[in-house]
């Protein structure tokens, strides 16, 4: 989980930089929606990481899968934001 935490921290830094940059007016609504989706996915990741800290041997595989799914969502939302 330490690796996912480092990746999440790196993403937080990149998102802060993106939020500080002004966008063109036509791209602003698309950027706003992509940022909203990304923020929701990041919040979901924090929740899943908290769940992982409390996971048992019985719930570990499911928790890992959920973290993987939310990370894929984050990557897709980040790509939408950047391109």
Question: Which terms summarize this structure?
Answer:
83 residues; mainly alpha; 3 helices; 86% helix; 0% strand
Can you walk through the features of this model?
With 83 residues, the chain is mainly α. It has a domain at 29-83. Helices cover 86% and strands 0% of the residues. α1 packs antiparallel against α2 and α2 (25-53) packs antiparallel against α3. The protein is elongated and about 45 Å long. The model has no long low-confidence stretch (mean pLDDT 87).
Furnish the topology, listing elements before pairings.
Layout: H1 2-20, H2 25-53, H3 60-82
Helix pairs in contact: 1-2, 2-3
Q: How much is the radius of gyration in Å?
A: 14 Å
General shape: elongated
Could you state the order of secondary-structure elements as H and E?
Answer: HHH
The structure class reads: mainly alpha
Proportion of strand residues: under 5%
Number of strands: 0
Q: How would you characterize the largest beta sheet?
A: none
Helix percent band = over 70%
Q: What distance separates the N and C termini?
A: 29 Å
Could you report the average pLDDT, rounded to the nearest whole number? 87
Which residues sit in consecutive blocks of at least 5 with pLDDT less than 50? none
The count of helical stretches stands at 3
Summarize the structure.
The chain is mainly α and 83 residues long. The protein is 86% helix and 0% strand.
């Amino acid at each position: 989980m330490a690796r996912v935490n480092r990746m999440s921290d790196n993403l937080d830094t990149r998102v802060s930089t993106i939020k500080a940059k002004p966008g063109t007016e036509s791209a602003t609504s698309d950027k706003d929606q992509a940022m909203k989706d990304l923020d929701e996915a990041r919040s979901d990741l924090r929740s899943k990481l908290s769940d992982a800290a409390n996971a048992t041997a019985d719930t570990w595989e499911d928790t890992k899968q959920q973290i993987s799914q939310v990370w894929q969502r984050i990557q897709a939302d980040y790509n939408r934001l950047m391109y």
